[in-house]
Design brief:
Strand content: 35-45%
Helix content: under 10%
Largest sheet: 9 strands, mixed
Order of helices and strands: EEEEEEHEEEHH
Number of helices: 3
Radius of gyration: 29 Å
Length: about 200
């Protein structure tokens, strides 16, 4: 098929590499690409209801979105929300289908995602599942997520290292209505104006 032909048949199709096996869906009919068959409906995951845009980003933003599927009515919710789905690879292509053979010779890959989490939706009597996606490139952005400049995190990496214990210019929580930590002196009152004790007010000075 060439651009000089009167009709062009373009199809969008996705491949989900899930723990229970690959799911290959297209936006209508059936087609074959790279030796694998794609169909409009899967026995478990149903059909594609919505597909996010492909790889397009601005600056340091990594594109993502949600692939929305309309699963089969018999598919249990536990399957749709299985934590094992997280991290599964999802690829999407657009290609030209030869109507005589149903084959896609060459295709443009729209995106290469991984599943971040899933959300089951119920609206107007219809059930859908949204696979929230991030690009595989975004893994580079989240490698250090949760790393903060705090004594607790610092010691989780370097046990017993107390370099952050006496950091200044950070917020300090002071319990309301309690005295400060013992100063090593015995005796004395712990109330304001009562003598040698230290109070929460002293700790703020």
């Amino acid at each position: 098929m060439s651009l000089s032909d009167r009709h062009l048949t373009l199809a969008t199709f996705v491949k989900l590499e899930l723990p229970g096996g690959d799911v290959r869906l297209c936006d209508g009919g059936v087609l074959a690409f790279d030796g694998e068959d794609y169909a409009a409906r899967d026995a478990v995951w149903g059909r594609v209801a919505e597909i996010p845009p492909g790889d397009a980003s601005i600056g340091d933003l990594a594109p993502g979105g949600a692939l929305v599927l309309a699963p089969d009515e018999a598919t249990p919710v536990s399957t749709l929300r299985d934590e094992a789905l997280h991290g599964s690879r999802v690829q999407a292509w657009m290609g030209e289908v030869d109507p005589a053979t149903g084959l896609v010779g060459t295709a443009h890959r729209l995106a290469d995602w991984i599943v971040d989490f899933t959300r089951v939706r119920l609206a107007k009597g219809a059930r859908t599942v949204a696979l929230e996606l991030i690009t595989r490139l975004e893994r580079l952005f989240i490698r250090n997520r949760g790393n903060v400049c705090s004594p607790r995190w610092h010691k989780s990496i370097w046990a017993g290292e107390k370099g952050f214990d006496n950091c200044t210019d950070v917020e300090v929580s002071v319990p309301w209505g309690t005295e400060a930590a013992p100063s090593g002196k015995a005796g004395g009152s712990t109330t304001p104006g009562g003598g040698g004790g230290r109070t929460w007010l002293d700790a703020l000075r």
